[in-house]
């Protein structure tokens, strides 16, 4: 027997590997996959309904929703509701692959935040076009290793007030005698917003945002009894977006406005509030650009 004969002998581990049968490839079951996706959507729809019911009766939950909608202005009402329900403190969201490509690792054990995104369109039986819905799983930056909440940048207070004033759909007049003992007041008859003298910067922004929203609502088909609530919520979101304190804003009227209406109707009201807020925000963004351009001109002139 040669001293090299053992090189041709298989050890126990190699015998096991050779005798191991190749794993059978699991076949894709389209029906099972479709059923799973259907159940995922049903679960998310149920979560939206539950979260909507809660925010319609709980001031703190409603405040969380408005704060999230202020932070994530491009998100739909339903997705803002989902974020507020699952992680109201979220500041930056992305899916697993996006975080991975950014060299950010998701912490072990972190639960994904589920959102909805539009899927491909399809043809209904009646010939109309529908759009499917996909469930998307995302994570907040705080769920990544070393991730910290994103601190939002806000404009200087005077600049924010100036942009808001220039975004008004009607003249703003400083006349305390016409404010009806209020800090600010929109006159439907005179098409003017009147404001008192001597208000703090935060109060000026807060009350003007409310009255500007009221002026815009005057031309829309909104129940006048609820118009004040709409404009109040618009003011809250605009304050959040521009660094104005919202701690003193009470939202207890939700019990009156949302009484005896279903979740779909609640979300309809929230959609009106969201769209109006975004319209004013867009007007303000244009004003910010104009103000910045004017400031650069002044700086160039003194050089």
Walk me through what this model shows.
- The protein has 303 residues and is mostly helical.
- The protein has 2 domains: 113 residues, no CATH class; 145 residues, no CATH class.
- It has 10 helices and 6 strands.
- Strands 1-3-2 form a 3-stranded antiparallel beta sheet.
- β5 and β6 form a beta hairpin.
- The termini are far apart.
Short description:
With 303 residues, the protein is mainly alpha-helical. Helix content is 50%, strand content 12%.
Approximately how much helix is present in the residues?
40-55%
| Number of structural units classed as domains | 2
Number of strands: 6
The arrangement of helices and strands along the chain is HHHHEHEEHEEEHHHH
Low-confidence stretches: none
Question: What class would the helix/strand composition place it in?
Answer: mainly alpha
Strands side by side in the biggest sheet: 1-3-2
- What characterizes the major β-sheet? 3 strands, antiparallel
Helix tally equals: 10
The outline comes out as elongated
Q: Gyration radius, to the nearest Å?
A: 28 Å
Report the β-strand fraction as a percent range.
5-15%
Average per-residue pLDDT, rounded, comes to 90
Terminal CA distance reads 97 Å
What labels describe this entry?
single chain; 10 helices; 2 domains; three-stranded mixed beta sheet; mainly alpha
């Amino acid at each position: 027997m040669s001293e090299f004969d053992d090189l041709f002998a298989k050890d126990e581990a190699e015998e096991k590997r050779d005798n191991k049968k190749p794993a059978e490839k699991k076949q894709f079951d389209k029906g099972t996959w479709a059923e799973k996706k259907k159940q995922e959507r049903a679960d998310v729809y149920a979560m939206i309904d539950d979260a909507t019911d809660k925010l319609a009766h709980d001031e703190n939950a409603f405040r969380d929703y408005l704060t999230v909608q202020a932070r994530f202005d491009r998100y739909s009402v339903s997705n803002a509701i989902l974020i507020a329900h699952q992680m109201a403190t979220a500041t930056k969201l992305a899916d697993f692959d996006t975080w991975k490509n950014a060299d950010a690792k998701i912490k072990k054990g972190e639960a994904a935040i589920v959102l909805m995104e539009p899927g491909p369109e399809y043809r209904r039986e009646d010939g109309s076009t529908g759009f499917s819905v996909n469930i998307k799983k995302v994570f907040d930056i705080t769920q990544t290793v070393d991730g910290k909440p994103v601190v939002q940048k806000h404009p200087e207070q005077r600049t924010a007030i100036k942009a808001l004033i220039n975004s008004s759909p009607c003249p703003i007049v400083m006349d305390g005698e016409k404010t009806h003992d209020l800090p600010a007041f929109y006159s439907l008859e005179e098409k003017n917003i009147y404001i008192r003298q001597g208000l703090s910067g935060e109060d000026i922004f807060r009350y003007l945002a409310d009255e500007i929203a009221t002026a815009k609502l005057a031309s829309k088909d909104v129940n006048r009894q609820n118009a004040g609530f709409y404009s109040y919520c618009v003011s809250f979101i605009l304050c959040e977006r521009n660094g104005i304190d919202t701690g003193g804003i009470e939202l207890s009227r939700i019990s009156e406005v949302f009484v005896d209406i279903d979740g779909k109707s609640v979300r309809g009201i929230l959609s009106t509030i969201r769209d109006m807020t975004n319209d004013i925000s867009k007007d303000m963004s244009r004003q910010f650009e104009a103000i910045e351009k004017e400031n650069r001109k002044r700086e160039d002139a003194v050089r």
